[in-house]
């Protein structure tokens, strides 16, 4: 597949990863407060952190199934494993590269098996994004009512939904140029099929719910009361901060958004920052694991079966060892 990225993109991603690795190796470079917050992670419950990782993985699965449903409505049927692998690779790249590079790669991977290529896939991704915006708007409304989040994102979300509805109606009634028509295939198909639209919206809703569950698990891991209530405020703050990620996995920005959201609810700054760091770390590690799993699945034609089996076995043993080392000792 032809590379869609210049040397500048690769250098930017490499420098971002180098800076992130340096900061992880020497937390003191970030200041005393951050060092104390990282030290506070020692009191976190490993079982809850593992539960958060599983929920984050579920969010990726729901995203893949939402894309699959939108593309199926647009005339491109895909298997669940195939869609999950292509989507997962994008998740993994987004975790280690800034500026949604993984999302662009994801569109390219789906475009290789789509009848309309990347144009149709981009339109399907936009259609899924609109359904996510609806559920995000509901969470923002909760945060705005609590006085933690501003109300203006609700107006922006409403404008996006209205524009999407107008685009769908236009695509159904007017003959459009070829490229624009390819982009709007999914919008037209979903507007014509309430059932397909309901399936996409349901997967988007389930994805939002699993992310809230992941956030609640991380909050519970740090021993904060009312974790679900905190998560309902935390998730929209993180999503708003991720509109344009400038760091790999939006690390730093996401942690700050979590800390600010929790601080507005009266939680101490040190504890709030610990939650933010834990949220970013668990989400990033889960995304990398999902990306590696996706790469393993998609490399089926390039790797011999015994190589894939050995890699899957090694990964399973590694996960089992990590789980046993972190969760079982406190229980025993």
From TrEMBL:
Domain of life, source organism: Bacteria
Name used for this protein in its record: Uncharacterized protein
Keyword flag Transmembrane helix: yes
Keywords: Cell membrane, Membrane, Transmembrane, Transmembrane helix
Membrane-related topology note: Multi-pass membrane protein
Localization of this protein: Cell membrane
Subcellular location, principal: membrane
Taxonomic lineage: Bacteria, Bacillati, Actinomycetota, Thermoleophilia, Gaiellales
TM region positions: 47-67, 116-142, 154-176, 197-222, 277-299, 306-328
Listed PANTHER family: BLL5419 PROTEIN
